[in-house]
Amino acid sequence: NLGNPEPMTLGPRRKTRQIRVGRIGVGSESQVSVQSMTTTKTTDINGTLQQIAELTAAGCDIVRVAVPTQDDADVLHIIAKKSQIPVIADIHFQPKYVFTAIEAGCAAVRVNPGNIRKFDDQVGAIARAASDAGVSLRIGVNAGSLDPRLLQKHGKATPEALVESAVWEASLFEEHDFHDFKISVKHHDPVVMVKTYRQLAERGNWPLHLGVTEAGPAFQGTIKSAAAFGILLAEGIGDTIRVSLSAPPVEEVKVGLQLLQSLGLREKKLEIVSCPSCGRAQVDVYTLAEDVTEGLKDVQFPLRVAVMGCVVNGPGEAREADLGVASGNGKGQIFVKGEVIRTVPEADIVETLIAEARRIADEQGLE
Length: 367
Ligand code: SF4
Hints:
This protein has twelve helices and 15 strands. With about 375 residues, the protein is of the alpha/beta class. Helix 3 (about 95-105) runs parallel beside helix 4 and helix 10 packs parallel to helix 12 (about 350-365). It starts with 18 loop residues before the first strand and ends with a helix. Bound molecules: iron/sulfur cluster. Iron/sulfur cluster (SF4) binds next to loops. GO terms for molecular function: 4 iron, 4 sulfur cluster binding; 4-hydroxy-3-methylbut-2-en-1-yl diphosphate synthase activity (ferredoxin); 4-hydroxy-3-methylbut-2-enyl-diphosphate synthase activity (flavodoxin); iron ion binding. Pathway: Isoprenoid biosynthesis; isopentenyl diphosphate biosynthesis via DXP pathway; isopentenyl diphosphate from 1-deoxy-D-xylulose 5-phosphate: step 5/6.
């Protein structure tokens, strides 16, 4: 067995009702899914489909596209048909685009009650159209576009205000006997966001879409999202996630998947166990770890590779991994499944590890 055959799990998922976004199940019976959103103009059909293909290749489960204009709504049927993964139409301000998106074959529609003023009057018609087409919805409440009535009542976008908005909108759909929706209550502050989702999770068994909205550039956004999602997912809260970064959407998917893998919620693929290096290091650990990661980045099976700078913890970690190197004196002891198979010069370490990973994959019929 490679990788970590019996990973520890954090605890049970919160029980939710189950919905579908196209072929992807969302709810406690399904694995936590990863979403992202295209940054192209949706009317740029080829550009949008190209970006969706890149997201699909990166492991994205569900993609959302913006529908700000009639022209965007008009091309949804092509995007929905040609996308390899389920498409969610993201709609603000114009309820009529919701109907277009449903007719276009989108797997789901995201509606933001705070941005659809006459939304309440349209709920019955939206519920009927979605139900007839087997399309699910996301009620996407966002701190930046909270219903003005609630903003006035609560003074600002507090957890209570966000939850009140979500619960109210959920009740409108439920009154029409429509239950195929998930809810998000996003805030840019991870602490507020965590408190909001915790409160919402207490109020009903809706599947929840997690997001720290406007989380920032890649470094800050990754940490904010990891901190908030880590807390909630450890409590079993969260059925689908989107890491929002001011960075290309493929980066959002990489972060999202890595986050789920780190929490034992997805099968780990390549896992590099590398030391931070210190004054004892006898090789350039940073470069070595980066080169090994780059060389093995296409590994699609669980493989733990230890890259260690010296003999203090090196042999121990290298022995625990599927593959490893413990360096010393400009050389690397190469371990496979706990056995030293050979010692190679520093310059050959990366190449040897890559060759051994390929050999393991071939032997076990993996790719
Ligand atoms: Fe330092 Fe060696 Fe530990 Fe790396 S393995 S951090 S070089 S003591």
